[in-house]
Write a structure and sequence with these properties.
The structure is a single chain. The chain is an alpha+beta fold and about 280 residues long. It is about 25% helix and about 45% strand. It has helices at about 1-5, 35-45, 85-100, 160-165, 225-230, 250-260, 265-275, and strands at about 10-15, 20-25, 55-65, 70-80, 110-115, 125-135, 140-145, 150-155, 170-185, 190-200, 205-210, 215-220, 235-245. Strands 1, 2, 3, 4, 5, 6, 7, 8, 9, 10, 11, 12 and 13 form a 13-stranded antiparallel β-sheet that branches. The longest helix has 15 residues, at about 85-100. The N and C termini lie far apart (about 60 Å). Residues about 225-230 and about 265-278 have low confidence and may be disordered.
Amino acid sequence: MEKKFYDNINVLECIEKDGIKIEILEYKTLRGLRDVCLAENLYYLEKAGMSLKQVKITLMNSAVTTERGALHFHKGNICAECETGGVGGLAKKLLKNKLTNESAFTPTYSGTGEIFLEPSFSHYILLELNNDAIIVDKGMFYCCENGVNVEVSSQKNLSSGLFGGEGWFQTKISGTGLCVLAIPVPPAEVLKYELKNERLQVDGNFVFLRSASINFTVERSAKNLVGNLTSGDGALQTFDGTGTVWMAPTQFVYGALSRCYYPSVPNASRSSGSSSDD
């Protein structure tokens, strides 16, 4: 039975190091059809290239912290705990939840065994930090190895806080270890830049990850009012310095498509048919 399960699995990403292994799994097919409606939905999902994914974590006398509610099941000698840190720690966690959309209480699983997180049609990336720090969009954190810290990062200047489109606060992930992020687009649609004392400017808020060493501001596209009017661009997100920037150039397209309404073809056919009978 276990072999049949893994025969239906693709491993999209995998990193293994001392004490821990994290894999991003993809189900090749879904065959649990029970009715015509379910079959129709699954047909369109497959046609659209959507696949069900799941994060698997193998612990070998180690620990991992996950987003609240992410657990699907675990097997082995694994203990779960969720520390509040006393009254002060509780207040800090609640504030973090309010500012970053990350869970106030994140459970930690330790021991030896396997952990499967909830299956989802979301998109994931697996990162390995080596005494690094990154800033990511709110709500992207999914899980991390023990030794990685997740905290609140405030914007460093007035322009990015007011006009950056990200709000005053984002999520900072730092330390050494593995972490998984839920990203807005498939990894194949992510563009990654390594800046070397360079500048990157984008029109929109589709940069979702950057090194903490990168300076983030918002600037006008031109130096004067006439230039702004003639260029057609207003304020640009500006990233300066040395480090990594990850962006999702196609993200706005999905937002636009989700707001579109397409009339049902069967309804249109019935309407035209009834008109012709009159």
